[in-house]
């Protein structure tokens, strides 16, 4: 077996040290009934600002934001996360629900736990949930950090960009997510947000991946369709940045769609920057 060069091994050790040596923070973890479902949630820290992490389709929120959640400095901030029903540690679902149900679920959880006006940090499909919630409850959202989050224009743009074979593969994946894996209906969520879309009257940050998404090759997408997938995503990221008149946009140069293992530090930095951009609360 070929050994690592000692210098490289030292550099790798130093690079990983902040993650490996961090002390596990004090936290509150519990389950809360919202409607017919038991939702798993967790918070750490306390203070006047509440930040809530929202995961993508079928993704366990603790896995999605593991390093971001663990290393975020919570002085003056209550940092919370939750799993939607059917995902992670929350109760299972028998079938997919519309986007409105996901927004209502977050509203019920936030009210039960007194999360109050909050900053949402939304990854991937979670961006649709966050925007739907912000449209339903504008008084409850102070700002949003979108972490490589979906914009509804991407779905129609992707259909135009992919080959017929690639589009068929993509539809198969979305149907599998809806009926088998996540029990979340991407196509319905996109249509729902398109029907009621309006600008967000709050500050937002749009963080977009810098490393192309290549896992599509596992499903036998062609190289051309993988490139088209990523190009159409970039176009939709620019559209997402136009959803507010107060937008900050950054490229996560060294992070892929599943950003947390590569660059949680940039996400942490941008959450803190957004908190500084917020107007003072009149409590």
UniProtKB/TrEMBL annotation:
<dbReference type="InterPro" id="IPR050471">
    <property type="entry name" value="AB_hydrolase"/>
</dbReference>
<feature type="signal peptide">
    <location>
        <begin position="1"/>
        <end position="22"/>
    </location>
</feature>
<dbReference type="Pfam" id="PF00561">
    <property type="entry name" value="Abhydrolase_1"/>
</dbReference>
<feature type="domain" description="AB hydrolase-1">
    <location>
        <begin position="51"/>
        <end position="166"/>
    </location>
</feature>
<dbReference type="GO" id="GO:0016787">
    <property type="term" value="F:hydrolase activity"/>
</dbReference>
<keyword id="KW-0378">Hydrolase</keyword>
<dbReference type="InterPro" id="IPR000073">
    <property type="entry name" value="AB_hydrolase_1"/>
</dbReference>
<keyword id="KW-0732">Signal</keyword>
<protein>
    <submittedName>
        <fullName>Alpha/beta hydrolase</fullName>
    </submittedName>
</protein>
<dbReference type="InterPro" id="IPR029058">
    <property type="entry name" value="AB_hydrolase_fold"/>
</dbReference>
